Amino acid sequence: MTQEYQMCKRCVMDTTDPKIQFDENGICNHCTNYLARAEKVLLPPERREAKLKEYINKIKEWGRGKEYDCIAGVSGGVDSTYMVYIAKELGLRPLAVHLDNGWNSRLAVTNIERVLNQLDVDLYTHVIDWEEFKDIQMAYFKASVVDIEVASDHAIVAMIHNIAADRRIKYILRGSNFATEGIMPRSWVWVKNDLANLKDIHRYYGTRKLKTYPTLGFLRLVYLRKIRGIERFPLLNYIDYNRDEAKRFLIEELGWEDYGGKHHESIFTKFYQSYILPTKFNIDKRKAHLSTLICSGQITREDALKRLEEPLYDESELKRDTEYVLKKFGWTEEEFREIMNLPIRQHDEFKTDVWIRKFLGSG
Q1: What's phi and psi for 22, nearest 5 deg?
Q2: What domains can be seen in the chain, in order of their start residue?
Q3: Is 308 exposed, middle or buried (0-12, 13-18, 19+ CB in 10 A)?
Q4: Which helix (H) or strand (E) holds 335?
Q5: How much is the pTM?
Q6: E strand or H helix at 173, and its extent?
Q7: What are phi and psi of 94, to 5 degrees?
Q8: Which of 251, 261, 294, 354 is 20 to 30 A distant from 108 in Cα terms?
């Protein structure tokens, strides 16, 4: 039975998430859960500052005499770029690492180089084999599951952990943060390091062997964290992080240039979030992003509603990006329409290692 449309009266999440729940006052579970978790994740200023100082001192002490004391993944976006700036301000010596999956915008490359040069931070770029990566992405399209971005996100997490293991660097700084990313329906994404799911989707629909694609299964992840002692630190959770203020600072002080949207530093991610998701899956991720900002007090609900009225794509940009994406994949317009019209399937229709996580109590 089709659910009657409803939007939360506190945030802007709505019934485009089929699993959303509302209380008697029309308030959804997403913002209610966010506010409950915020009390635990976002500590009061005094405790937050003390915890930050304690952790930074621990990283510095471990890194004494070493070339780098931590690793920081960078995409060229606001969060990861500002994270590196804060790390340097706190006296850390990060090695910045970046995954080039063939979809970087020119501006992303320019932003990364410009900012890291000014901050005097070394950069390691892992260039992924395009033919292998394209084969994985095309397999996800043919599988018709929602989270095509697993192909990129899995490789990023794997690359960072593998570099940390190879270089014996104990600490990984995370750009993801609760203040601006705390809300995301589970029905809109999938577990990023579910290697069993990725391999099974590729087994059904891929055409090439994966020889160089970075992978990281759940059990190896547990080994690296529990046995090798690699730790991730969400640095932005321990400062008063406001995304718009961070963006203004990067623009004015470090010459960073805006992409116009969250994660639009990647041409594919822009096309995926602004066209594929809303067109095929009826998902507008802006609702989750804006709802998070409402809950963290960075924008008002009225402002969020106005932003949602803005088109997801400029028509000329959509035409240009569509042509670019189809050319990269070697698809005709008819082939792309056929893929977009495939019946939607769920990730757990394929093999998954989520059961291992639940068995071990890891979600």
Answers
A1: -120, 145
A2: 45-282+314-349 (3.40.50.620)
A3: middle
A4: helix 333-340
A5: 0.93
A6: strand 171-173
A7: -80, 150
A8: 294
**Both ends of the chain: CA-CA distance in Å?**
29
The residues with which 22 forms a beta bridge, in sequence order, are: 28
What is the spatial distance between Cα 48 and Cα 137, in angstroms, rounded to a whole number? Answer: 40
Burial classification of residue 327, based on how many CB atoms lie within 10 Å of its CB (0-12 exposed, 13-18 middle, 19 or more buried): exposed
Q: Cα–chain-centroid distance for residue 97?
A: 15
Residue with tokens 């992409």: 259
Q: What are phi and psi of 30, to 5 degrees?
A: -65, -50
Taking alpha carbons only, the member of 302, 26, 24 closest to residue 15 is 26
Name the residue with tokens 């040069």.
117
User: What separation in angstroms does the CA of 236 have from each of 90, 139, 182, 251?
Assistant: 12, 34, 12, 18
Say which DSSP state 279 is in.
I
Tell me the two tokens of residue 355.
């059961």
Token pair of 122, please?
Answer: 């070394």
Angle (deg, nearest 10), helices 315-329 and 130-143? 110
Q: Residue 225 is which amino acid?
A: R
In this predicted model, what pLDDT tens digit does every residue of 180-235 receive, in sequence order? Answer: 999 999 999 999 989 999 999 999 999 999 999 999 998 899 899 999 999 999 99
